[in-house]
Structure formats: structure tokens, C-alpha cells
Amino acid sequence: MHPVIRNFYSDNRAELLVTLVVILLIAISAIALFPFRSDFQQLLLNDQNQKVDFARLAALFGGLATIVGGAFALWRWTIDQRWRRVQYAQQLLQKFFEKENTKLALRMLDVQGETELPSSEEGEVQVVFLTEEMLIISLRTLKDQQMFDEPHFTIRMIFDEFFTDLSMFQHHIDANLIKMKDIRPYLEYWIKSICGYGHIYSGALAKQIHQFLKYFDYSAVLKLSQRLGYPLKAN
Of 2, 105, 135, 168, which sits with the fewest C-beta atoms within 10 Å of its C-beta? Predict the structure, then answer.
């Protein structure tokens, strides 16, 4: 299935389900009514005196009311489910952005120059002059580098936790608990930053980030980037 079609179906599954059920109810009603009379007027007339049969009329309106009531109930259920889903997505986003580690990672993605990072000494901070080269070295895979000194080790741990938390959103999408459109406005800028579409760092950092993600099997982050429409930018 084409990715655009698959994503449309995934993001509008509830609406499509309601539409299908309503169509099915109408079709069943038409099939149920067809054997009795092909002519609508005859359907409402008494066979003996050709006068309006109020019992038939009441049954007909009762059936239509049942269809309309069922469709309305399904519509309300869909709206309620959508509202709960959006609320849940907002809770996940709030928890994500309130984490101190997330704030540190986003700050490093959005600035270069002097910045404060946690220190190996509890309660202390280290002031570093952040550069693209420093981030690239910090995110090397283990096949390229085994030991990491400060501040590279701290930077590495911050991004490791950041990517773990970011993976959570794709896992929730895969489980149909939230939809891409619920989180797109909040994560799109940062996904662009790690995939080479930002304005702070070059494609060299994006390439190293993707090597890190592949090496440590952060496939959910890579999938999230693809579905948002931002694969690794070609230089």
C-alpha cells in the first residue's frame, strides 16, 4: 500500500469506520424493506382498503429512527474517542517537554556556543562551548570510539535518553493510542533538526545522528522521521 494512502487510513480510521457502519445500516434497511413493496406509497397503504396503515407508518419511522439514533451514537463515540486520544497525546507531550533531559537536548539542538551541562559531580554544572564537532564526537558509535571523556560522555547520555523518550511517540502511534496529527505541530521542528533540515547545524551532524540511531536500534525514531516526511536530508 502506498505510504500516503496507508497514513491517511491510519489517521482517519475512526471516521472511516463510522461512515462504513452508516452505509451498512442503510443498505440493510433497504434490503429489509425491499421484499414488502417496491413502491413506497403501497408500502404505507393497507392492502384491503388502500388507506394509510399507521402501524406500518410507525414501524417505518421507528426503523429510520433506530438508524439515525445508531449513527448519532457512533458519531458521538467517535468524537469522545478522538477527544480522549488528543488529551492523552497532550499528556505525553507535556511530560516529555517538562523533563530536564529533554530541555537539555533541545537546547543543544538549537544553539551553538557557551552552554551549561550537568557535571559528573552531583549538583554541579560544567560550562562548555558547544560546537557541531563536539556533538558529532559525542554521538560516535562504539565501533568508531570506545571511550568518551567529558563533556562528550554527558552529551552522549543526554541524547541517548532523549532518543529513548522520542521513540515513545512512535510506539504509541503503532499501538493506535495516538495519531501523527496529534503530535506533528510539537515535534516537527525538532525532527527536522536531527534530520538535517534545521538552520543551526549542517548535514554532517544529521548524518552522525542517524548512524547513532541505526547502530543502537532506535528504529522508532527513524520511523517517526519518515512518517513526518523528514528522512535524512541528502547533502
Answer: 2
